[in-house]
Amino acid sequence: MAKTLKDLALALLNATLILLALCLFLAWKVVATADGLTATFSENLIKVTPLRDEVAGLRSDLSGIRDDLASLKAQTGTFSTATLNRLQQKVQTLEANVQGVQTRVRQLVDTPEMLIDHSIETAADALTRSISDVKGCVPAS
Q1: DSSP code of 119?
Q2: I need a labelling partner for 83 at 20 to 30 A (CA). Which of 8, 25, 93, 98 fits?
Q3: Mean per-residue pLDDT of the chain
Q4: In contact, 69 and 92? CB cutoff 8 Å
């Protein structure tokens, strides 16, 4: 009876140590992933800021082109009114596209939690996949 209790206690201690090692390994992987996310997030913010400034410059350039087209339209020259109208419509479409991009970039810069949420979801998916791989539950391709 004493030997059985001793063996049971040793098995309990072994299982506890194995679980502790597994928890430490998983914690280490989570911390490594979080560090990678932080680095990636700061790199993304550094990359987005010049892009925002560039889009703002493009928008001012488009505004200048639009003003030039308006002044050309007012002048009497060799350009036909239909050609100037088509050019002006193209510039307006381009300006709308640039404004949409600028709005999305501003949202990313003003609300970095969107990037953080996306990074966390991506990391959680990667962690789930790696745990499934370790477990041997990889879905068939």
Answers
A1: H
A2: 98
A3: 76
A4: no
Can you point out the beta strands (E) in the chain?
Answer: none
pLDDT tens readout for residues 50-102:
777 777 777 777 777 777 777 776 776 566 677 677 777 777 877 777 777 77
Query: Would you report the helix, strand and coil content of the chain in percent, each value rounded to 5?
Result: 90, 0, 10
- Sorted by sequence, the CB contacts under 8 Å of residue 141 that are 6+ apart come out as none
Range 62-65, long-range pairs (CB < 8 A, 24+ positions): 62/91, 62/94, 62/95, 62/98, 63/95, 65/91
CA dihedral sign, ordered 56, 62, 66, 71: positive
- Angle at alpha carbon of residue 85, lines to 80 and 89, rounded to 5°: 155
- Among residues 109, 127, 19, 128, the alpha carbon closest in space to that of 56 is found at 109
Query: What is the pTM (predicted TM-score) of this model?
Result: 0.39
